[in-house]
Amino acid sequence: MSAILQAISKISPPPPVNAPREYDGYEFRWKMFVFRPATFQFEGMMFAILGTYLLLHFIGKAINMGKAKKIMAPIEAFAATQFKAVRPMESSSSALHLVYATGRRNVLAFHASLKLSTLHDVIMLLWENIYSFIEPTKAEQPGLTFQYTLGRGTNGLQGEGAGVWGILSKNGMAAVREKRWDLSFARIQDTPLIPATHTLFTEHSEITEALLKTPNIGLSNLLADADSMDMLKFFIISDVSDRKPTKGPLSAQSRARQIWVALHTPSNGTEEAVVNAWNQVALNVADFLAKNPIKPEITRKLIKTRLEVDNALAKQYRKEQEEDGEVESAEDKRLAKKKAARAGLSEKELKKLEEKERKREIRKIQKRGGMGGGMGGGSARPFAGMDKVPVGGQRIRDPGWPRSMAKTPTCRTPGSPAKLASTGRGMLWGPLGSRYRPLEAGVTEGAEIVLELSAGAGTPGARTGYDDAEW
Q1: Lowest-confidence range among 60-74, 228-242, 245-259, 452-466?
Q2: How far apart are CA 66 and CA 64, in angstroms?
Q3: Signal peptide location in the record (predicted)?
Q4: What is the distance between the alpha carbons of residues 109 and 102, in angstroms, rounded to a whole number?
């Protein structure tokens, strides 16, 4: 403990001291003020460290922003030739940049993301370099990732797709397989058409033949080019989420068919041309899949596999709910079903439904108020002819009491008396939760009263004795 205190005392700034009048060092004087730099050595060191950090931040940010604009410029130009609308580059930070495009047949949306080294953050940059030495295969490397969304939900989906198919570089394949759940649907397949530096993942061999042997796609040409394969991290076609669902299977609206292309960061014009070539191949594959080239029997197998996985996910989620005691009640299911039904309504239909429900609730309240005469809350009237609530079992004379009751109900406390908390208004509640009438007369604070309702002989369901009173 003493060692810790000594260490803290060494790094802590010294306590303030009275400056001596005799001083031979350098100082600044202005009227009655004097500044002696020699007495602020610790503060000067801290300002120097902070200034160095800020200087490195701005230098790293400027380098990254310039590099991002240079890399993204040809990608934006390529996207402009293929898509109707292209949004200029957006930057989440100086190390993460995004380009979005839409408006093309067979492609719903296009996302291009660029990740660079965190030159603007020296601490994070140091950690990334250390982690790359510890786990070189799992460290996240800078690069480009292109995401082509062919369809989502009921928008833009033609046919059943090709399932999960991909080409992964063996350098970093373990990290990609660990992060992407959709690759668990495919299995590794050996083929001479894929270079030795990469691995093929597929759900069926005929899908591979259709993609590699169909002319005008261009995928086989890039596989035969060494420079193109050196740039490729992975090329994945998937109709399954890349992340495993945690709350049962995904809904139909959340399912998407996508093409993912991950490449190393280009550093020259040749590599930039390779990036555009891979993007062109991805678009060619999207057009090819829109023709539904897969045989029906293969499609049925793919659908069956996904149904089995969905059933397993639903069963696992129900089991987790039962273990955690979070099983959905019938009321929760009813509300969820009601919410889902409302989600599909237009704004006009939703307003009409809300108005209908509001009128239904008003009718229910009016119906409850009319039942039982004075017993209901709707027909309750204030006590008449009262100055104070009687104490000690006296009688209350109320002309507004229901005629079926005795003319003079008895105020008596059987068991637990009700205590008034304050002077003024209160509310009496009768048996079975029915409201008798509001109390508006002046009440002495702290007065204790009890009610025993004496009903007439002809009153249906009459009770003698009052066992609950709330104020």
Answers
A1: 452-466
A2: 5
A3: none
A4: 5
Rounded CA separation 184/169 (Å): 17
The one-letter amino acid code at 324 reads D
Distances (CA, A) of 293 to 155, 285, 299, 305: 19, 11, 10, 19
Strands (E), 96-163: 96-102, 109-115, 143-152
CA distances from 352 to 292, 341, 349 (A): 42, 14, 5
**Average pLDDT of the chain?**
76
Query: How many whole angstroms separate alpha carbon 440 and alpha carbon 423?
Result: 10
CA dist 206 and 295 (Å) reads: 9
Distance CA 32, CA 43 (A): 23
Measured CA to CA in angstroms, residue 337 lies from 32, 255, 329, 331, 358 at distances of: 77, 20, 12, 10, 19
Three-state SS at 103: coil
How do beta strands 96-102 and 28-30 pair?
Answer: unpaired
Tokens of 406: 């005795």
Instruction: Tell me which amino acid residue 264 is.
Output: H
3-state secondary structure of 135: coil
As a whole number of angstroms, the distance between CA 387 and CA 94 comes to 77
Question: Tell me, what DSSP letter sits at residue 120?
Answer: T
Within 10 A of 226 (CB to CB), how many other CB atoms are there?
A: 9
Residue position matching structure tokens 């600044």: 28
> 3-state SS of the chain: helix, strand, coil percent to 5?
40, 20, 40
* Angstrom distance (rounded) from CA 120 to CA 311: 47
pTM of the model: 0.62
353 token code pair = 């439904």
The strand pairing partners of 452, in sequence order, are 410
Tell me whether strands 96-102 and 85-93 are parallel, antiparallel or unpaired: antiparallel
User: What distance in Å separates the CA atoms of residue 408 and residue 414, rounded to the nearest whole number?
Assistant: 18
Highest-scoring range by mean pLDDT, 11-20, 161-170, 379-388, 410-419: 161-170
The DSSP output letter for 452 is B
Q: What percent of the chain has pLDDT over 70?
A: 73
The C-alpha angle 426, 427, 432, rounded to 5 degrees, equals 160
Q: How far apart are CA 91 and CA 100, in angstroms?
A: 12
Top-confidence range, 10-24, 43-57, 457-471: 43-57
Contact present, 228 and 195 (Cβ < 8 Å):
no
**Partners of residue 112 on adjacent β-strands:** 99, 146
Strand-pair partners of 288: none
Higher pLDDT, 382 or 224: 224
Residue entry with tokens 């007369």: 441
